[in-house]
Amino acid sequence: MRNEYTVSILTLALIVSMSAMVPAAAAQQDSRGRGGQGQQHPKPAIDRALDTDGDEMISSEEIAQASSVLPELDTDGDGVLSFSECMGFSTSDSARQAPPSGRGGSGGRPPEPPIFSALDSSGDQVVDESEIAGAASALIELDDNGDGRLDPDECRPSHPGDRRGEENRQR
Question: In whole angstroms, what is the distance from residue 153 CA to residue 98 CA?
Answer without folding.
Answer: 25
